[in-house]
Amino acid sequence: MRRPVITARAAATFEPVGRSVATARAFVRDTLQGWGCADIVDDAVVLTSELVTNAVVHAGTAADVLCLRNDGGVRISVADRYPEREIPLQNAGQVVVHPDREGGRGLLLCGALAARWGVEYTAAQKHVWFQLDLPERPAGTRSAGPALPVDALPVTDTRVRVAVIQIDRSGCISFWNEDAQDLFAYDPEQVIGKPLTDFAAWPHTPGTGTGIAEALQLSRWEGSYGIRGADGRVVPVYASHLRVRDADGEASTVCLLVRDHERAILQSPQRTPAPDAASQASQSEGRPSDPFEVFIGSPAPDDLDGLLQRTVERARDMLDGDAAYLLLATDDETELEVRASTGLPSARQRFARVPVEAGSGRYGSARMPAVHEDLTAVPGAVPLLSGTGMRSVVTVPLKVEGRLTGSLGVAAEGAGRYTNEEALRLQFAADRIALAVERARLTELEKLRRGSLSFLVEASDLLAGTLDRDQTLALMAQMTVPTLATWCAVYTVADQTSEPELSYVLHEDEDRIDGLKTLLMKVDPPEPVPTPGARVWTAPSDAAHDAALRTSMRSLGLGNSARPSTGPGATLATASAVGGETVVLPLVARNRVIGMLTLGKPTEEHFRQEILELAEDLSRRAALALDNARLYSERTAISQSLQRSLLPPEQPEIPGVEVEVIYRAAGEGNEVGGDFYDIFPIRDGVYGFAIGDVCGTGPEAAAVTGLARHALRLLAREGFGGPAVLERLNAAILDEGARSRFLTLLYGELWPQNDGSAVLKVVCAGHPLPLRLRQDGTVEPAAEPQPLLGVMDDLELYEQTVTLDPGDVLLCVTDGVTERREGTRMLGDDGLTDVLTTCTGLTAGAVATRVLRAVERFAAEPASDDMAILAMRVPEFQAG
């Protein structure tokens, strides 16, 4: 057996942390898209996610991911480094694992999604690999048609315009001819340099078919899509793309576009292959060829959209009709969904849904062939054709094993065109293609579900990565636009008595966001109904149409008011942007509606059922993420409010003394920890100051902090001296019982003097000693150590008197400063002394800042302990 030839290779290693799973997914996605393997990206991402999760989360080791591209597809290998791997015993008590279980799904998914897969063991590693084969793409064909009489030629406008657009390798427009300007009303300078995706309305569903980026990379592509004109309306076009390169080897894509009803100018009919000997013998023997091939032609399209489009075109031609359409049943077979049409505004009708059984007039006969000789006699008999000018129609069901899978219809502008004979001919053709259509539909549905699984994996990971409410709202919108919808609005509900509030608006065209937001602000918000599933909301499109009508009348001078400042263009563009189907999905978390996710389409477009189901899954995940962010924000706000109440009020001005305090609490979201400080007036001319450290950090330590600070103020103002204040505080801490924590505290009283000096009476109870910096640069302790508080009942403390001369500095810190570590090194008392010796002549603020900077630079890691710095300085040259 020939070994596959490796044509590209990419490898990466991911550390055993939770974030590595998302990084690995992004690595595989970017690699495969760079290789042009977009058809298998979703399956590869899902399988890689499961296997890397097994390695970094469950096995707890690094994961090595290796991607190999060969001539048959892509092989991806994920290896972990678990040191005790053993070869599993064959048939040793195998247990069937439920696919919804948290772990162990990787191999089950490999068996379901991969073409081949396997497990390989080495002495130190276990490799799980899987192979995904690339689909074969049919080569293009050429053809020549016979001479036809003039009345049989396709009908076009008198002046046929062929837009020529050139797209560079980055997907941006580099050339825009005059016909393109006439067709779409954009001047070249408005479009050149911008991506084609900004203007193309691509009929593509995520996870199925070919996207615009992939189509531009193909050597040749031909088909239908839409271009949004300057007025916001979508112009249906038929396009032929050709990939070329210039003399320098630079690749680009040349796109030729005509109006969709003029597609015959560019469309290449499929060439019917010459019959081989077997087929000629079959025909000579009178055996008919395959009816499916007779109707569809050869080769048959390999994608559902292509097959359906070919079907409606052949059905229209077979019955010489003016239009044809095909509807497919939804999963629950209660509705029919428009999937293809010709001769009708396809962009307007695509994915429109109608009930299967809704009375005798509205598709009540969908399960049987039906002929309507004149629709004007039975208004609304075929809702899809309302307002199209079609008068007669024949419809037949598509059935597989007795189940209704769809409906095929052909219509004409004249009355009485069809009889039961035409219905029988169309039914015969429908019977030939029903099985192929159902098979293609199921294949598309499987691709969509795989793409949905990949989408939800990515969405869940992103939503779980933040607890910020505003960021969660932005993520919700950005994940839906443009993947699921053209625009999105998120409403939030604060409580059951509050009205919904418009919190976030996003449109795939940034220029439309402001107009869309203004429109939605004028519309009453949708009702916060907890019923699951999407429900249609018509208020935005109705309001947009009314506003556009009023603007048009004012611009023509028919209205009563002056010309609007925004001009008619903006209003018409907004109306076009929201003129399609709009649905609302409730955001329900913990049995309460906390908001609504609103998704919309542009003019008269509809959502397909599978997209709505995917949006419902996303809304459930988004609701829980939004509620978690709300709870986190509320609890953080409460915590910070309580913590701020423990901080000292505004620092008093002390005559003749500079005071500076720097405080840092350890832990995210903490404003107060175990370290604390306070400076307060006791009586005229006397000020108290304190700096302390409660054992531990966080809210528990902050509770003792509040007790200590309030007790110090109360006792000092009652006239107690330093030792008596600390002895009574010690008793209060011990009274807390099991909740008590020991406390180191430096407490002092400050007495500014008329001669410019300051007298301090201090007590240092187990706290790092205060340091005194003299003018000559010498540093010395300004107190002696005494027992800490909260340990012993009987304390005998004493106070010491220190005089600060003009120019002297007293520095007080907590152990978060002196115990700053980098590996085995510690700043310590000596390191702090060295820093303070360099602060001669600096203000109190500069001293505190220099100490903080030295602490931060001592180690690269963030500080893990609370930290407080109190600097007091007596300025020089004070008046006597």
TrEMBL record:
Disordered: annotated segments: 266-292
Segments forming domain PAS: 164-194
Keywords: Hydrolase
SMART domains: GAF (SM00065), PAS (SM00091), PP2C_SIG (SM00331)
Cited InterPro entries: Bact_Sigma-Reg, GAF, GAF-like_dom_sf, HATPase_C_sf, HATPase_dom, PAS, PAS-like_dom_sf, PAS_fold
Signal peptide: none
Pfam families membership: GAF, GAF_3, HATPase_c_2, PAS, SpoIIE
Entry annotated with the keyword Hydrolase: yes
Superkingdom, taxonomy of origin: Bacteria
Keyword NADP listed: no
CDD domains, alphabetized: HATPase_RsbW-like, PAS
NCBIfam families reported in the protein's UniProt record: sensory_box
Protein name per Swiss-Prot or TrEMBL: SpoIIE family protein phosphatase
Lineage of producing organism: Bacteria, Bacillati, Actinomycetota, Actinomycetes, Kitasatosporales
